[in-house]
């Protein structure tokens, strides 16, 4: 696309002070999102790329955790000096942003008032979010590296506050994240991890589109994946729902 990629860098604080030690800073930024309250340390962005919200912004407007949109623009303050992060995952021409203000994202399903001309395009400004999480310095920087940070590593857990945009790239998503969504076209991987399978593991991804022509299964899979039997708990739940349905029909048969 010949566009300059930008990467938003999260702002991390320990006891109200920015994390200055470069080794500790790098280790914290590389923590997986499920350990940082789903606020990414590195957020790569390119104009017109799909993104997904990681928290509820305004559920009444359909801006909630998992809502997908199209990234349009990042508004930020220029750093006094060029910031470089040596990471092989990003191209050499990447622009790293430390002082993010907000991102402009278009949400097609957002329930904004069309009578307001400034909101008719359904572009919403997403400001940075603040979350607090715990981490163990010993695990991130074992041995002498931890001692050099001047942080008391004897403490079992350290509290860290992170400021970052509640967004993640949404070129792909897990089955769990796709629940309840109707999508235009999808590519599905049906090679399941080892272990017992639930019916929902197969039904959910295959039912995200309205037409079979909009579904592509990326590579061969075991046909047994489609023959998963419901668990005992699921069978009992179906029986309970059936009883409720029968009882409801009897109670309201004259109305119906």
TrEMBL record:
InterPro entries (UniProt xref): P-loop_NTPase (IPR027417)
Signal peptide (UniProt feature, chain positions): none
Origin superkingdom: Eukaryota
A GO CC term attached to the entry: replication fork
GO biological process: DNA replication
Protein name: UvrD-like helicase C-terminal domain-containing protein
Organism (species): Rotaria sordida
């Amino acid at each position: 696309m010949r566009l300059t990629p930008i990467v938003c860098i999260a702002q991390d604080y320990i006891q109200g002070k920015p994390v200055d030690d470069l080794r500790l800073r790098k280790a914290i930024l590389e923590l997986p999102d499920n350990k940082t309250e789903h606020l990414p340390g590195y957020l790569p962005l390119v104009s017109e790329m799909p993104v997904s919200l990681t928290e509820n912004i305004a559920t009444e407007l359909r801006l909630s955790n998992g809502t997908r949109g199209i990234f349009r623009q990042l508004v930020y303050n220029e750093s006094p000096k060029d910031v470089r992060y040596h990471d092989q995952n990003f191209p050499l021409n990447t622009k790293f942003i430390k002082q993010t203000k907000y991102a402009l994202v278009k949400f097609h399903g957002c329930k904004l008032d069309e009578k307001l001309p400034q909101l008719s395009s359904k572009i919403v400004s997403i400001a940075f979010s603040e979350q607090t999480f715990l981490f163990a310095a010993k695990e991130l920087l074992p041995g002498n590296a931890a001692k050099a940070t001047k942080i008391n590593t004897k403490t079992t857990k350290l509290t860290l506050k992170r400021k970052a945009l509640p967004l993640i790239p949404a070129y792909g998503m897990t089955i769990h994240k796709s629940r309840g969504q109707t999508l235009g076209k999808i590519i599905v991987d049906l090679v399941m991890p080892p272990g017992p399978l639930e019916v929902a593991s197969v039904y959910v991804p295959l039912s995200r589109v309205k037409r079979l022509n909009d579904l592509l299964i990326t590579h061969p899979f075991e046909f047994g994946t489609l023959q998963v039997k419901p668990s005992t708990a699921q069978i009992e739940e179906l029986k309970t729902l059936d009883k409720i349905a029968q009882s409801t029909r009897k109670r309201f048969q004259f109305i119906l």
